[in-house]
């Protein structure tokens, strides 16, 4: 995995079965302001499916970060980002129940997702 902030991360294919609980792993620990559950965050992120390793979304590919209130995001982000500090890079593995649910409606329903998130700012 790439550990250089400000560049798009690369993920190695995960091994073994997908975890059933949220996994939060700091790749780079930031030194800036800490994100709170009530924060609006400015992030760059990469999202891949756990089972296939296929990228399904990336702010890096669009060439611009995304800014949004944490409370409006999937539960895995609402739980996995608070405590992270600006300048940090964190990997979050999100089971379906904390992502897009277990069935129907969303193309990613029923899938465990891996996100690598760079926290650029907090407000």
UniProtKB/TrEMBL annotation:
Highest taxon above the source species: Bacteria
Catalyzed reactions: [protein]-peptidylproline (omega=180) = [protein]-peptidylproline (omega=0)
Record-annotated PPIase FKBP-type domain positions: 38-123
Keyword Isomerase: yes
Cross-referenced Pfam families: FKBP_C
Enzyme Commission numbers on file: 5.2.1.8
Location of the region described as Disordered in the Swiss-Prot/TrEMBL record: 1-20
The entry's keywords: Isomerase, Rotamase
PANTHER family: 39 KDA FK506-BINDING NUCLEAR PROTEIN, FKBP-TYPE PEPTIDYL-PROLYL CIS-TRANS ISOMERASE FKPA
The name this protein goes by in its record: Peptidyl-prolyl cis-trans isomerase
Annotated organism of origin: Leucobacter ruminantium
